[in-house]
């Protein structure tokens, strides 16, 4: 009898969840969801289809709705052969540059932010809260406000057309510092006292306790910051002059000419597909950690 009750209990709970939901409302919800997916995914599919056709086919409308037979040829030409409008630089070089910049910005922001929040929450020193609010106030200063003095510093230090010049000015993050601080404030004082009684110093407490507790927050921030770094346009546009140091977003802008005949549209479409692939892969593979980092209260 007990087994019967246990077996049927979930189904009764499921029935309660379905109260008030008619078949029409369920089908309507699914239809709206499918329509939203089509609206979002169709431009990506259309870009992929264009990337598999020749330039002549793209310039002669209408573009076929099915993929063509030049997939390997177009992607090989873009990845390894080079694109004329960006000085013959292959897209693989652009992907490498953008990957280094995105990882550098994401990791740099996380490292600086978590160390800053650790110092503000767990250490007592003069003007501690003053420095925190000073960091917080920088949220009100957009990049455009400080971009000219930052560019001047990069020129004086000789960091134009370098990975350091692309990454370092963008690795400070008041938002990430605030998020880590708010999380650290939820850590019970008893845990800190237990670590102190156990003889754990500041480094051991940070490495063995805070970092494991923060892993979901770090994962969620990494996804957001990686996409932020990957999509950067204004700063890489200013700090790079050589085509082989461009990021893929800058290269895409350079590849498009005002005249259709001067634009290698099949290579532009290939580059567009390759530009959106890494962020999608990061989101897909880190989706579980990303969601947990945003909604999980049990760290």
Structure description:
This protein is an all-alpha fold and 299 residues long. It has a domain at 91-295: MetI-like fold (Orthogonal Bundle), CATH 1.10.3720.10. Helices cover 71% and strands 0% of the residues. It is built from 16 helices and no strands. The protein has helices spanning 2-17, 23-50, 55-59, 71-81, 91-122, 128-137, 143-156, 163-167, 174-184, 189-197, 202-213, 215-230, 234-239, 248-255, 265-285, 287-295. Helix 14 (248-255) packs antiparallel against helix 15 (265-285). The longest helix is centred in the middle third of the chain and has 32 residues, at 91-122. The protein is globular.
Layout of helices and strands, plus pairs?
Blueprint: H1 2-17, H2 23-50, H3 55-59, H4 71-81, H5 91-122, H6 128-137, H7 143-156, H8 163-167, H9 174-184, H10 189-197, H11 202-213, H12 215-230, H13 234-239, H14 248-255, H15 265-285, H16 287-295
- Alpha-beta classification: mainly alpha
| Stretches with pLDDT under 50, minimum 5 residues | 1-19
Q: Report the principal-axis shape.
A: globular
- Rounded radius of gyration (Å): 25 Å
The fraction of residues assigned to DSSP E strands is: under 5%
Count every beta strand, where a strand is a DSSP E run of 2 or more residues. Answer: 0
CATH classification class of the domain at 91-295:
Mainly Alpha
CATH topology of the domain at 91-295: MetI-like fold
CATH superfamily of the domain at 91-295, by name, is: MetI-like
Helix content: over 70%
Going by CATH, the architecture of the domain at 91-295 would be Orthogonal Bundle
Element-by-element helix/strand order: HHHHHHHHHHHHHHHH
Summed over residues and divided by their number, the pLDDT gives a mean of 84
Figure out the total of helices.
16
Major sheet description: none
Distance between the termini: 38 Å
């Amino acid at each position: 009898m007990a087994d019967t009750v246990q077996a049927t209990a979930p189904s009764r709970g499921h029935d309660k969840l379905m109260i008030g939901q008619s078949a029409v409302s369920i089908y309507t919800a699914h239809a709206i969801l499918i329509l939203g997916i089509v609206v979002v995914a169709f431009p990506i599919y259309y870009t992929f289809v264009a990337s598999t056709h020749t330039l002549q086919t793209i310039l002669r409308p209408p573009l076929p709705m099915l993929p063509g037979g030049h997939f390997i040829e177009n992607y090989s030409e873009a990845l390894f052969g080079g694109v004329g409008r960006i000085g013959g630089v292959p897209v693989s070089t652009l992907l490498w540059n953008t990957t280094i910049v995105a990882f550098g910005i994401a990791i740099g922001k996380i490292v600086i932010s978590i160390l800053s929040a650790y110092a503000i929450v767990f250490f007592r020193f003069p003007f501690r809260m003053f420095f925190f609010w000073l960091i917080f106030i920088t949220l009100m200063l957009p990049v455009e406000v400080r971009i000219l003095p930052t560019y001047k510093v990069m020129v004086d230090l000789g960091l134009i057309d370098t990975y350091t010049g692309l990454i370092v000015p963008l690795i400070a993050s008041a938002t990430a510092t605030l998020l880590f601080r708010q999380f650290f404030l939820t850590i019970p004082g008893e845990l800190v006292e237990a670590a102190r009684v156990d003889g754990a110093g500041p480094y051991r407490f940070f490495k063995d306790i805070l970092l494991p507790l923060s892993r979901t927050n770090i994962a969620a921030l990494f996804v957001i910051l990686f996409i932020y770094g990957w999509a950067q346009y204004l700063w890489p546009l200013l700090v790079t002059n050589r085509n082989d140091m461009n990021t893929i977003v800058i290269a895409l802008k350079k590849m498009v000419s005002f005249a259709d005949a001067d634009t290698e549209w099949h290579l532009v479409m290939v580059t567009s597909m390759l530009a959106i692939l890494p962020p999608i892969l990061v989101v897909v593979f880190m989706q579980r950690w990303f969601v947990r980092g945003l909604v999980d209260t049990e760290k």
